Amino acid sequence: MKAVIQKVLNASVTVDNSVVSSVQKGLCILVGVGSDDTMEDVDKLCNKVLKLRLFENAQDQPWKQTILEVQGEILCVSQFTLHARVNKGAKPDFHRSMKGPEAVQLYESVLEGLKTSLGNDKVKNGVFGAMMNVQLTNNGPVTILYDTKE
């Protein structure tokens, strides 16, 4: 499972010209489910996101607090293109991405894992499989690439 974890001041997802989800201070996470991912990868990703110290403390010292400690929000967006291979030719190869029905189950498990720790109101998501516009204000900028297989 691959993720792009971005610290944000705000983020939103729009589908068909309608905002479906938005968050304020927190994280925007693009999640790509790979063809060989399992619940073990879900657990690794959730644990990593919840333990990453990406936020300042009360004394403005960077890298001191987690999303839990700052009571931030998370916007998750499914992103099968994270597993694209572009080494050959001009067209991306998506064979390493898990197919829709199986991928949606693992993606929803990521959402549930995060909600268990943060609360339902703190974790938002886009529309799985839809064409989405993601808008965000990256804070820092802080952008972390994470692969549960590494």
Number of domains: 1
Instruction: Provide the CATH top-level class.
Output: Alpha Beta
Order of helices and strands: EEEHEHEE
Number of strands: 6
- The CATH architecture category equals 3-Layer(bba) Sandwich
Beta-strand residue fraction: 25-35%
Annotation field: number of helices: 2
The helix content, as a percent range, equals 10-25%
CATH topology name: D-tyrosyl-trna(Tyr) Deacylase, Chain: A
Helix-strand makeup class: alpha/beta
| Largest sheet data | 6 strands, mixed
Task: Show unreliable segments.
Answer: none
Q: How does this structure look, described?
A:
The model has no long low-confidence stretch (mean pLDDT 97). The protein is built from 2 helices and 6 strands, in the order βββαβαββ. It is 21% helix and 34% strand. The chain has a single domain, classed as D-tyrosyl-tRNA(Tyr) deacylase (D-tyrosyl-trna(Tyr) Deacylase, Chain: A). Strands 1, 2, 3, 4, 5 and 6 form a 6-stranded mixed β-sheet that branches. A hairpin with a 2-residue loop joins strand 1 (2-15) and strand 2 (18-23). It is an alpha/beta fold.
Give a quick summary of the entry.
With 150 residues, the chain is α/β, with parallel strands linked by helices.
List its traits.
single chain; 150 residues; D-tyrosyl-trna(Tyr) Deacylase, Chain: A; globular; DTD-like_sf; Gly-tRNA(Ala) deacylase activity; tRNA binding
Write the layout of secondary structure elements.
Elements: E1 2-15, E2 18-23, E3 26-32, H1 39-51, E4 73-78, H2 100-118, E5 123-125, E6 133-147
Parallel strand pairs: 3-4, 4-5
Antiparallel strand pairs: 1-2, 1-3, 1-6
Helix pairs in contact: 1-2
